[in-house]
Amino acid sequence: MNGTDELSVRLREVATEAALAVAPDLVAAFRGAMEVDFKRDEHDPVTVHDRRAEERIRALLLKRVPDSTVVGEEGGRRDGTGRIAWYVDPIDGTANFARGLAFFCTSIGVTVDGEPVAGAIVDPVAGHVFTADATGAYLGGEPLRPDGVREESRGLLITGFPTTRELAWNDPQTLPRFGELVARYGTVRRTGSAALTLAHVAAGWCDAALGTSVNAWDICAARVLVQRSGGVYRSFAGEGGWDQPGYLAHGASLEALAAREFVDWYLTRPAARSTS
């Protein structure tokens, strides 16, 4: 193992420690009484538990790696002087968490010189601890090697498309394109947590995931997890644009023709051309 690999292993350990540190409090708060605030609109909720968890995670990360940068969904960016940057979503799937739906997670990814190298995704209710570094991807310490389906007609696709913003385009192709995915995949679901969905792709519990409106803290850890498990992760912006809002991820054996056709349409639709 070279020095770069050793660093990724160490950073994965720190990310895992921080994600696990807040898990008991999230489990204790889950399905309890809580006040819900909203950020951009009523589709973007936040709770005191999001903020408290992120504060605790930040403190632990900076204690372990004092010169690092921390970018969090709730607290924004705190720049450090070193090469390492953490991307933190204390509760990815806040709407689910606030309503008592057990599909949310804590996601902590880490980059070195701008490139994702390790991360941890913890599902506190199920007790699943997904981690990845230069040596591979793991669930509870066991290597992830998903054996998925080849045909989309037998596959499970999870996607957040279309969002309210995308419906507001009034593009006549928006719903037909979604309908095409529904027709060509065996099952299509909407879960509300990009990070946990991608962890399920890495585990082989989901065959494909398609996102069009995510943030860097949603996908930093998950990208490493999918790739290190042997899966495919494609950013809409290409290899250098891992932190951009669109992605397609799937198991290595899946022939994701319908999903790739969707991506091609999405990148060339009139709304995309008008903003490019």
Question: Could you walk me through the main structural features you see in this protein, from its secondary elements to its overall organization?
Answer:
The strands form three sheets. Strands 4-3-5-6-7-8-9-10 form an eight-stranded mixed β-sheet, with helices on both faces. It has a five-stranded mixed β-sheet with strand order 12-11-13-15-14, with helices on both faces. It folds into two domains: 3-143, Fructose-1,6-Bisphosphatase, Chain A, domain 1; 152-275, D-Maltodextrin-Binding Protein, domain 2 (3-Layer(aba) Sandwich). By secondary structure, it is of the alpha+beta class. The model has no long low-confidence stretch (mean pLDDT 93). 38% of the residues lie in helices and 25% in strands. Helix 6 packs parallel to helix 7.
Short description:
It contains nine helices and 15 strands. It is α+β, with helices and mostly antiparallel strands.
Residue share in β-strands: 25-35%
What is the CA–CA distance across the termini? 43 Å
Content-based structural category? alpha+beta
Could you list the spans in which at least 5 consecutive residues all have pLDDT below 50?
none
CATH homologous superfamily of the largest domain - what is it? Fructose-1,6-Bisphosphatase, subunit A, domain 1
In N-to-C order, the SSE pattern is HEEHEEEHEEEEEEHHEHEHEEHH
Strand order of the largest sheet: 4-3-5-6-7-8-9-10
Assigned CATH architecture of the largest domain: 2-Layer Sandwich
Q: Kindly provide the name of the CATH class of the largest domain.
A: Alpha Beta
What number is the mean pLDDT? 93
Q: What is the number of independent domains?
A: 2
Q: Radius of gyration from the CA trace?
A: 18 Å
Shape: globular
Report helical residue fraction: 25-40%
Largest sheet: 8 strands, mixed
The count of helical stretches stands at 9
CATH topology of the largest domain: Fructose-1,6-Bisphosphatase, Chain A, domain 1
Q: How many strand segments?
A: 15
